[in-house]
Specification:
single chain; alpha+beta; Aminopeptidase; nine-stranded mixed beta sheet; two-stranded antiparallel sheet; 10 helices; 30% helix; globular
């Protein structure tokens, strides 16, 4: 692109966005999911992110973000933006009600690395020969936070994974609060019951590392522990997700982050049908 996302949102935003070749659309009633096709749709995703992260969840915007009422960074220029639309709201950008940011190796190379590398050593993933995909900036309009939209986002992600033969998903999952002492139960539960295998286990950067093992495994009730985990992270666990070693405090978003890793071959049966294609060797357990 000749313009960055931050430059483009000041303009008419009529330029065609050069998305990846996976041109899919999944429709369920009035809702649909597909990749953004132009700058106007991307701008709608950035606006939705701002409303949720900064106005609703009280994250700390930069001055430029606050002026523009958009959440954006350098990664948005190169990422693919997965969007959920409600046709009852319109036919274009005005209908965007949910989003996920998707970054593949090629995009990360173009912008100097993956977003997660600011918090975690992800060399165990980047050195793999398999294709990997970073998920991030997930949010849904408050009026649409139900199973329909979440499932639709995941159907979009799985369609994207099929198109690009993705074998590993990863990204930062956030827990509200910058006080790890108040998060002993969820952090310890994730550490004891969902720690990633050594060979695919990212580690928090040494200068940002917060110990997750704050309670003995015998002191944690599994049901209580799972209940203490935010819905988004819980969703990753349900599809076979693991966490890396160490939590990280994100001052901008006022959260404590954990690194999520999902092997697509471990996707549960609920989503397995979306990986079925000729020549695919994805399997569910």
């Amino acid at each position: 692109m000749t313009q960055s996302i931050s430059q483009s949102i000041l303009n008419a935003s009529s330029a065609t966005y050069k998305s990846c070749s996976s041109d899919f659309e999944i429709v369920k009633g009035t809702l649909s999911v597909r990749l953004a096709r132009d700058m106007g749709e991307i701008d709608a995703a950035l606006a939705l992110r701002y409303r949720i992260f900064y106005e609703e969840m009280q994250a700390r915007p930069t001055t430029e973000m606050a002026i523009r009422k958009r959440d954006f960074d350098k990664y948005d220029d190169f990422a693919d933006h997965l969007l959920v639309f409600d046709s009852e709201l319109g036919r274009g950008a005005e209908a965007v009600v949910g989003t996920y940011r998707l970054i593949r190796r090629s995009a990360a190379k173009s912008c100097g690395g993956f977003y997660s590398a600011n918090e975690y050593d992800i060399n165990v993933l980047t050195r793999l020969s398999d294709e990997i995909l970073e998920l991030g900036r997930s949010c849904v309009n408050a009026d649409y936070r139900d199973r329909r939209v979440i499932n639709l986002l995941w159907e979009g992600i799985t369609a994207y994974c099929v198109a690009h033969d993705i074998r590993f998903l990863f990204g930062c999952g956030s827990i509200p609060s910058c006080d790890p002492a108040a998060l002993k139960t969820p952090l310890s539960y994730l550490y004891h019951y969902h720690l990633a295998p050594e060979e695919i286990r990212p580690r928090a950067l040494p200068h940002r590392h917060i110990e997750m093992n704050q309670r003995l495994i015998g002191d944690i009730d599994q049901k209580t522990g799972l209940k203490s985990v935010p819905p988004l992270i819980k969703g990753y666990l349900r599809i076979g997700g693991f966490v890396g070693d160490g939590a990280v405090i994100d001052e901008q978003f006022q959260t404590t982050d954990v690194c999520i890793v999902v092997q697509t071959k471990l996707i549960t049966e609920k989503y397995a049908r979306y990986f079925e294609r000729r020549g695919s060797n994805f399997q569910a357990i």
